[in-house]
Amino acid sequence: MKIQLLAFSFLITVNLPSFAKEYFCYVPGAGGGSAYALQKLPLDLKARNIEALSFFVGKTGTVQEKALRLQVQIQKHLSQDSDFECHFFAYSQGGIFVRYAMNHLLLEDPVDGTISFAKIAKSFTSASTPHLGTPLARLGKNFLGKQLEEGLAQMSEEEVAKFNDPSNKEFYSPAIEGMPSFSYRTFIRSSREAKSLPEKLGFEAIKSDAEKRKVNSSSDGVIPFGSQGFAKVLSDINVSHGFFSSGTDFKPSIVDVMEAHFRMLKGQTPMQKSYPAFFSELVAQTAL
User: Could you tell me the pTM of the whole model?
Assistant: First the structure.
């Protein structure tokens, strides 16, 4: 006990709290993740005393296939440490297959035996995720047919609806009861705010489709704003879709935001107070 108290005192003195058993686990989207997010992001978070992991689950594949690949990687960590736990931060399509994994997949714990995937999750946060689908997938299916990659095709409104339908036992993936679950919604007000050509084209395609269907056209250039909410919406951010896979070009950067998010999960300063100009109480319905 005396040693523990001394160690605790030392941590307080140097102001470096340790979260060694609770990892910040970044899960990328449909493209498999940028080189920065997969390789450098965990190191940048580690430099801020946050243990972090990024999981590459492939550039192609269905939601179910990517969830299984994630399961294999999580299992490796759990097999080495039965105390392994994750704060999942899932970007874009990653939010869908993490939802699926937590509701449908199992893990083998060295101590407790077979457990649900959700048991190792301390929290779940999605960012820029098409929880209600995106018209770009539907338009892509109409144009390319079966040539559209299967996982991308699953992001159409019709296909994503399966993950939200309680009667669809094969796919239904609700928020896990009792687990802190959050989402961030991203948006741009015009194609001029897009950071890439695909985002510019996507923004205009979503806007045109929304006008024809007489629905809200707000988006981040890939995902409609109204599709991104899941569980508790923490904030709306005026950035294009690629932000949560970006490097450090933005100010605040992806590292700043993720550090602040993790501190928020640990009961420390909310990031909106740290970066008030960056976070917005968007009235999205009248933004465009």
Answer: 0.88
